[in-house]
Amino acid sequence: MELNTMFMEFKQFLHDEIKISTDELATVIQRSRGVAPIPMLLWQYGLVSLEQLNRIFDWLDNQPQLYIP
Known about the structure:
The protein has 69 residues and is mainly α. It is 64% helix and 0% strand. This is DUF2949 domain-containing protein.
């Protein structure tokens, strides 16, 4: 599967299942470049709870070829 397609699936999961807004996600993606992985930034900025962070990591664990910057 193409990287862009997998990343779009990840963004869709965050929007649909974790309820991250498009604006929040855009801000985190912009700031993630070279700083930290997106899931950790979502947690550090208080946009997800620890339970939601665990759900994100569980989802990522089930996507073995997906790399999230």
